[in-house]
């Protein structure tokens, strides 16, 4: 029996809305051209360049580290109070801009772009850079697991009832190439009380690479509050 936690059901923006229009609905946050989204995109670009750089370069990587640390220190000087930032992160309805997988403000997010489909499924897409490499030229399996877990979670939100992952079963059928568009389709297949059963598949060029089946338990941890 898990430790008792307080639950609050958080539905995704767009969940259930416009599903009858016949048009896919954007569920992940749209990236802005400027501001923090642009800074996060620049950080992603820098990470990609660093991973591709390697040790054989003549480029002065000591000086580079000093410059990057100077920028980090400048940003750290501007940070808001951590507790207040956590409240801000979670206060908005709709897609989180800081999200690990889809968030335009999170440099670690690929980011994945997710659309809710009229048939109740969701479809997500991205292209993975070399920072996510596992085997040569292929994505690390843990990244595929992350993308699938998250997309299945968003499929629950689109179906109207989200939850926390209790069990995730993956079947790695073929390697996921870097640098090529990947698509993830996911759908909540059935609900039994608080148990949500959701399935998905990650494909490249129409070929299934990783399939996922998951059990989610409805409910979420409470959002941080100011007090
Ligand atoms: C933007 C949205 C996308 C987000 C997607 C990403 C989702 C995540 O990553 S969530 C983070 C990863 N997951 C976690 O950290 C979860 C950790 N686990 C927990 O907190 C708890 O175990 C939790 C919440 C899953 C279930 O706990 P609790 O609410 O107490 O439920 P509990 O009473 O134990 O179980 C409810 C039922 O589910 C069943 N169940 C629970 N866990 C499992 C499991 N792993 N396998 C099979 N059955 C299970 C129980 O047997 C019980 O069944 P029944 O009602 O028939 O007796």
Automatic annotation (TrEMBL):
Residues 28-81 form the RHA1-ro05818 N-terminal helical domain. Belongs to the THEM4/THEM5 thioesterase family. It catalyses: tetradecanoyl-CoA + H2O = tetradecanoate + CoA + H(+); (5Z,8Z,11Z,14Z)-eicosatetraenoyl-CoA + H2O = (5Z,8Z,11Z,14Z)-eicosatetraenoate + CoA + H(+); hexadecanoyl-CoA + H2O = hexadecanoate + CoA + H(+); (9Z)-octadecenoyl-CoA + H2O = (9Z)-octadecenoate + CoA + H(+). Keywords: Apoptosis, Cell membrane, Cell projection, Cytoplasm, Fatty acid metabolism, Hydrolase, Lipid metabolism, Membrane, Transit peptide. SUPFAM superfamilies: Thioesterase/thiol ester dehydrase-isomerase. It is a peripheral membrane protein. Signal peptide: none annotated. Pfam families: 4HBT (PF03061), RHA1_ro05818_N (PF20859). It is an enzyme of class 3 (hydrolase). CDD domains: PaaI_thioesterase. It is found in: Cell projection, Ruffle membrane; Cytoplasm; Membrane. Gene3D superfamilies: Hotdog Thioesterase (3.10.129.10), Thioesterase/thiol ester dehydrase-isomerase (1.20.58.350). The lineage of its organism: Bacteria, Bacillati, Actinomycetota, Actinomycetes, Propionibacteriales. It comes from Nocardioides dubius. This is Acyl-coenzyme A thioesterase THEM4. Its main location: membrane. Its EC number is 3.1.2.2. It comes from the Bacteria. The keyword Cell membrane applies. Residues 139-198 form the Thioesterase domain.
